[in-house]
Every structure is written in structure tokens, then in C-alpha cells.
Write a structure and sequence with these properties.
The structure holds 2 protein chains of 2 kinds. By secondary structure, chain A is mostly helical. Chain A contains 5 helices and 2 strands; from the N terminus they run αβααβαα. The chains are: A mainly alpha, B alpha+beta.
Chain lengths: ~90, ~325
Amino acid sequence: MSRQRTMEKILASEYVTIGELARLTGCRYSTLKFYTEEGMLPFEQAEQNLTRRYRQSESVKRVEWIRAQRETGKTIPEIRKMLEAGL
Amino acid sequence: MKKEYTLSQQFAAVSLDGLSCNHHSTAKYAAARGIAAAKFLEELLLREEDMPAGQTFQKKLEEGIAAVKCMKKKEMDAVEKETADMLLVDGGMEIVPDLLGCDMNYDTAGVSMKSYRSDREVYLSVVESVRAEILEDGPVTMECVCLLWLIRESGCMHDIFSVREQEQIQERMMALCVKEDQKRMVALCAKEDQDRENTAAEDGGEYSGQELTEADYISMIWKQEFHKSSEQMIKSVLKGKRALFKNPYLEGINLLFPFLDRRQAIFVDFVVFGTKVKDRRQAMIDYLSERGHLVEEIKNGTETLLRIDNACYRVWPKTVQVWKVPVQGASLVPVYR
């Protein structure tokens, strides 16, 4: 039976699941899903029916960055444009 | 949540949040039984390196749950206090004035009430990781299944999942159990063909003498119930009302799983000159903030809700009559997902 990974193991691993990302960032699942669907949170998927996995450190940094931008009053389309422009 | 919490602590952070810490309620007893069940599961499933196989596991599980179901009030109080104290010391939870104490009747009567409030980060981390794991395709861990089962049995489902999500969960759990069950049956048939003398029927049990699959564990846990028959009765009455309640205004109310009313609507009296909605909302925010609650506005489509501590409420302007004297104010009505 698969077990939940400890925080130590999650922090040491390269890839995390969306649930683990929610644990790491304290961000809502629906928010992370929305960011993913909007293309703001890059993920990897080996095959179509396999689970999406996120690069741990990059994703945490990205979520924190988006959160900081939201706090400054920027809207999601503005943040998306900034990401597309590579800012 | 960088700190590791045990299953019982994670469940306590979800189930005790918003419940009165110095008064008894059905919801609190359900939470206490859930904490006791979580502690039992920690021992049985999550700590034992060699989990008992087959019938032994089922027997142990049933005995443990039966013991949880028969717990006395004093035992439940002790379990609740022990776990809550650990979280309080750790900073995962705090004691704050109860929101019900802000109601006009309680406030004017000078009733002091205290309730548990889970740390926002801890609460979100537990809830959102469970939501992500069960609503997203992919493997489901034992911890997630256990937490989900505890949440279901303690009547917290409607706080965490919307009706649509609950239906998704029901389907997902069925699929998890059935898919693996079919595999097990195919393997069993093949085994029977090979050696007819060693069939499972001879052992006399559904899971006897065989290595349990992931689905067997899930299925065995998901089938168990520890909520009381009185709560079951409430559930069946509400089940009957399900069709009636399924409309755009009340669709957030959970009637698929055991339902326990964990929050109440309250009335706060105040007079705000001018009748703007924003002013009334701001008056409510100021009033609650003065009393130690964490209040923030959340946009939900065209309306604005208030998140008070870890739960959402809708503000309604209201006038009540006390001895034929109209008192102006606003009502806070709980909003479910």
C-alpha cells in the first residue's frame, strides 16, 4: 500500500505531486489546478493517463512568486503575460 | 506545513476547528471518536511494519472500531483534550472566543464561550492535500484514505467538499475498491483452477489466508462506520430531503455523507447610518475583529463572503424584534462548499 511521503522526503525529491505541492506551499488545490490549467505552473507528464508531476523547487518558487504578485494587486491575466514575457 | 503531524493530529486540526472547547456537542463527540479511531489506525496500519494479513486484519479493525463506537463521554473528553493540548503546545491550534458568543443573545447575556481554531497553514495543508490526492487522478495513499474516512464518519465532509466533489469521491472510492477487487477475484479463480483443495471457501473468510491488496485495505476501512445510530437517523432523514434541497441555493449542503451541523447562523445587532452593503459588511468585520476573530473578505462571483477563522459566512441584513422593539443588524449564515 502506498504511503504518504514525509516532509523530509518531499523536500529532498526532485518531483512532487499536486497534493505534495499543496502541502509545501499551503496553497489551495483548486488554485494550483487553475494555475496549471492556465499554463502558469509547468508540469511534466510521462503519458497522457499518468499523474502530473511538478519540479519541487521551481514550482514552490513559482507559486510564491505568483502569490507575491497577487499581493501587489496584479490580476491573473497580467501575471500570465509577465510569465509569457519571461519577466 | 513544514512540520510533520500524525494522522490523529491532522484529523484533530480539521475536525476540532471551530468547535467549542468548553461545551459538549454531538459534533465534538463525533470528532473525539474520530481522533480515537485515528490513533487506532496509526497503530494498526501506519506504524506496524508487518501489517496483519487477511482475516486477522479485518478482525482487529472491527474490534478496534467497535471499541471506538462504545467510548464513554469521559474517555472521549480525555482523547480530545490530549490531542488538542499537543496541538496547542505546538502552535497548530489556538483557543479563541467562540463566534457564537458574538450573537446578540449570547453577548447581551454575558456568556463567555471559547472555541478551537486551527492554525490556517496547518488546516489548509491537511485539507488541500487530501482534496488534491482524491480529486486528482493518480495513486491514493493510505493516509489519504484514512483521513477521508475519518472526515466522512465525523460529519465534516460538507465543510471540505462540495456536493459534486462528494459524488466524485464516492465514484472514485468505488472504483478503487472494485478495480482491485476484480483483480483479486481473477487471481483467486486462477488459483482455484490450479489447486482446488486450497480455496478461500475452506478458510471461511472473505479475506482469509491471502495476501491483501491495496484495494482490500481501502475497502475494509471504507466499509467501517463509527458514527452513532442517532447520527445515522439524522443522515437518513436528510437523505430523504436530498432531492428537495438540491437547488442552486442549497446545493452546497452535504446530504450524501453523514451530516453534522458544526456551525450556526448568528445575529449581530448594530446600526449603520446609510444602507450600503459595504458599510454593513465593514461594521461586521470591525465587530468580529475586535473580538479576536480573523476576518477577511472573499469574492465569490458577484457576491462577497466573509472568511471568519477557517470557515465562510454570508452576511444578510436583518431586523429582529425583541419585545416588539425592532433591532437592526446583520445575520451571519454559514456557507458550505
